[in-house]
Structure formats: C-alpha cells, structure tokens
Inverse folding.
C-alpha cells in the first residue's frame, strides 16, 4: 500500500506495508495483440494482464515490438558510462540536481549498513524534461523538481540521443499497454489517456557488481515501485526476486527478448488494491557484472492519484492517501538518495541546499496549477 513518504528503501519487509500475491511463478504474456485493430485480440491480452496483476503484480512480456538493437545500444552505452573514471562520472552527480538526474555512485543510495554503505549498485537516471516532452499543452510546471536531464556528452557524445530515443520509445509503448490495462479493468480503453498526456516518467541504467556470497547488503533494498507500472529490461544476469504471500522470494530470471513489467503504487492505489504493487529486491550473487534498465511509467506529475470509485466497495474504508504523482516521485527520490548527501566520500561533491529536506518541506505550499 502507498503510505505517505513511500516505502522505497525499506530494509525489511513488514506485513502491513504491502499486499502480497499468491504465486510461485511469474506469468509470460505475449502482448502483440495490444496493437491489433480487432477488439477480440486486445481483450485476449487484457484477460491475461488482469490475472497477472491481481495475483502477482509482475509479468514477462513478449511481442512488445521494441527493437532489440535499441535495447542493446542502451546497455552498451551504459557499460561504457560505468567504465569511465569516478571523477568523470561525478561530473553528473545526481545529488547536484534538484530533479535527481545523473549519476549515483556505488553504495550511494538506499539503507546504509554499519559502515555507512548503501545499495551495491551504481546508476544513471534520466527522465521527463522539457526537451523530451511530446505534449504541446504541457507547461512542465514542476514545483518540486525543476530541471533538465544531464548528460556525460564530453565523454560519450551518443549517450543523450540513444537514451532519449529509448525514453520516447518506451513511453509510447507504455501508453499502448496502459490502454490494455484499462481494458483489463473493464474501463474504457482511453480511461487513463488524459492522465498520461505528459507522463513524468524516468529511467535508470544500473550496474550491479557481483556481491560477496555472504553480503548482508542488497544490490537494491526490498521496495515497491511508486509509479503506474515499470517496464524493466533485466539484462542477462539473474538477480531480481519478487515477494509472495508465503514470504518466499521468487526469482525472476531474465528471458531473452522479454521485458518484465511490474505494477507500481499509483496503479495499486487507483484500483484500490485490486492490482498489486509487489515488493521486490535485487541481490547479485552471480559473480557476473549485472546491468539492468527499468523504465518507470508514471502519470502526469500534477495528476492526483486516488482510488477510482468503482473499485471501492460500499462500506469499505479507502486506505490510500490522495497524492499527486509528482509528490510520490519526489518523496521516493528524496528517501532513496539521502545516503549520498551524508556519506563522507560522496558528500564532498554535494552542493549545499539542493537536497535539503527542510527546503523540500517548505515547498509544500506550492501546488501544480
Ligand atoms: O534491476 C532490477 O532487476 C530491478 C530494479 C528495480 O526494482 C528498481 O530500480 O526499482
Ligand atoms: Fe523496483
């Protein structure tokens, strides 16, 4: 369930924070039918999506139509980026951007351990900005996280173009998939369209180096995603695990050519818990370098997320707080990146004030117009 402040970065899983599904395997869905002009084809996909979203919250997708070459190029450039020197990568340090774009160093995010180290991954974030927006009516009013993407253009001239193309491609696919999600909920297919006109999406290339076998740290702490849904390119190395009702962590290994889609807190809230935003975590115990690219598909930042009345049964209590998509994202990012601002190695790169919590709190009076 989405609680104010989000639950990203939880070190342990407590029962009351998440709804968990009854599953032992993650379904595989061929989604090619979402592009069909024939409603019967679209409905056939929607039925499978409904089953996966109510029971698991995770599913593999085939037939998505996103060119493998584009995915491969993103991974290849990501590997080149992470191979740059620390100083070079820190030129685009995430904590010097109010909108959390750029580089998060290894151990620089998540819950710190006794030595003050966080998650065993390094990452590069990019996302919604005026340049990537495709809605002429979007004024890009974001009181919390104003700013543009930041690119390591000096070292990697092709980075911006390739990652921007990936962003646009994944956003357009996600809009089509969202129509099928609407259908799966017996809503009009265009039900979410307006709220996804200038979606505040973001994407990450993450590098998870191999962890020591008995490492107490995670590659990524157990969490649920805060957005509408996530379309994950999981790379080639098994490391992602998904929590079921019996408190078992079910492995979600990569399947070549498939993405993994998981429901986020926005959709869980919109459906009043019918669709599950399932907890998951990453531990890379494979001895191989792992790279993955989640694309977080969100509603417009100013969109207020609250249960759709038809999912609220008479006499039941609404358990989900009303919150804008932008605030959800901001809360997640502040929590997730706090460690980088206090860690002795990274803090010397921090420009004071940008990620001051008090400063964010004091902006609370600002609202989208
Ligand atoms: O890399 C993965 O397999 C999952 C990443 C993830 O869960 C996230 O970034 O939210
Ligand atoms: Fe996640």
């Amino acid at each position: 369930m989405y609680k104010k402040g989000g639950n990203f970065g939880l070190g342990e899983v407590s029962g009351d924070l998440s709804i968990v599904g009854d599953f032992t395997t993650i379904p595989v869905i061929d989604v090619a039918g979402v592009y069909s002009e024939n409603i019967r084809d679209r409905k056939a996909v929607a039925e499978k999506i409904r089953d996966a979203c109510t029971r698991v919250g995770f599913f593999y997708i085939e037939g998505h139509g996103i060119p493998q070459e584009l995915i491969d190029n993103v991974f290849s450039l990501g590997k080149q980026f992470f191979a740059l020197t620390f100083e070079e990568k820190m030129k685009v340090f995430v904590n010097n951007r109010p909108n959390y774009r750029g580089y998060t160093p290894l151990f620089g995010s998540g819950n710190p351990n006794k030595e003050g180290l966080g998650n065993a991954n390094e990452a590069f974030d990019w996302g919604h900005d005026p340049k990537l927006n495709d809605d002429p009516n979007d004024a890009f009013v974001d009181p919390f996280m104003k700013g543009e993407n930041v690119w390591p253009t000096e070292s990697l001239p092709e980075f911006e173009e390739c990652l921007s193309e990936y962003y646009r491609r994944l956003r357009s696919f996600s809009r089509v998939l969202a129509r099928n999600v609407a259908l799966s909920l017996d809503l009009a297919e265009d039900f979410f369209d307006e709220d996804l006109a200038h979606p505040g999406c973001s994407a990450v290339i993450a590098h998870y180096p191999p962890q020591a076998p008995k490492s107490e740290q995670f590659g990524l702490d157990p969490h649920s995603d805060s957005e509408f849904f996530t379309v994950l390119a999981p790379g080639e190395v098994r490391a992602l695990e998904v929590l079921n009702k019996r408190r078992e962590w079910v492995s979600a290994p990569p399947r070549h050519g498939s993405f993994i889609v998981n429901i986020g807190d926005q959709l869980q809230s919109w459906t009043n818990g019918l669709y599950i935003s399932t907890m998951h975590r990453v531990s890379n115990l494979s001895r191989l370098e792992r790279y993955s690219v989640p694309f977080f598909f969100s509603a417009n930042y100013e969109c207020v997320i609250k249960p759709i009345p038809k999912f609220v049964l008479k006499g039941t209590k609404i358990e989900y707080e009303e919150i804008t998509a932008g605030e959800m994202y901001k809360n997640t990012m502040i929590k997730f990146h706090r460690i980088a601002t206090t860690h002795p190695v990274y803090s010397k790169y921090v420009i004071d004030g940008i990620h001051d919590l008090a400063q964010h709190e004091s902006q609370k009076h600002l609202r989208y117009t």
In short: Residues 179 and 190 are 6 Å apart (CA to CA). The radius of gyration is 19 Å.
